[in-house]
Amino acid sequence: MGEIAEITVDELAEMDLDNICLVDVREKYEFVEMRVPGAALLPLTEVPEQIEKFPKDRPVYLICASGNRSRVAGDYLSKHHIEVVNVAGGTKDWVSSGRKFLYGDADLVVF
After folding, report:
1. What is the CATH number of domain 5-96?
2. Rounded Cα–Cα distance for residues 80 and 75 (Å)
3. C-alpha to C-alpha distance for 71 and 104, rounded to whole angstroms
4. What is the Cα–Cα distance from 27 to 69, expressed in whole angstroms?
5. How many whole angstroms separate alpha carbon 7 and alpha carbon 92?
6. In whole angstroms, how far apart are CA 29 and each of 70, 77, 105, 108?
7. Mind spelling out the 3-state secondary structure of the chain?
8. pLDDT in tens, 14-35
9. Where do the structural domains in the chain lie, given as residue ranges?
10. Angle subtended at Cα 73 by Cα 21 and Cα 17, rounded to the nearest 5 degrees
């Protein structure tokens, strides 16, 4: 399969976050603390059992805290012919760049 595509948080910020498939593969407690708007939660350990939910007709953008777990998820999904794009730097880079982020359970979206 080779290398999976990767973008920066700056590139992600230029996208319409409400109209892309953005999946956060961190644990729920991390997701509740801070997350990129538009992201849906699917912890890395649950990716294999939820593989049928991933769209096959558009790219899936994967994010975690720093880009490591999302890269692992991307490697797995790409082996199953799902187009993936890893967000390098992850949620930590997003928040440290001063961009708006969400937190809490109120609008928790599970993939």
Report:
1. 3.40.250.10
2. 9
3. 25
4. 11
5. 14
6. 17, 24, 10, 11
7. CCCCEEECHHHHHCCCHHHCEEEECCCHHHHHHCECCCCEECCHHHCHHHHHHCCCCCCEEEECCCCHHHHHHHHHHHHCCCCEEEECCHHHHHHHCCCCCECCCCCCCEC
8. 999 999 999 999 999 999 999 9
9. 5-96
10. 20
> Which amino acid, one-letter code, is at 74?
G
pLDDT at residue number 32: 95
Q: CB 88: neighbour CB atoms within 10 A?
A: 18
Nearest alpha-carbon partner for 20 in 79, 87, 80, 67: 87
C-alpha dihedral sign at 51, 20, 102, 67? positive
- Structure tokens belonging to residue 17: 């976050």
- pLDDT for residue 8: 97
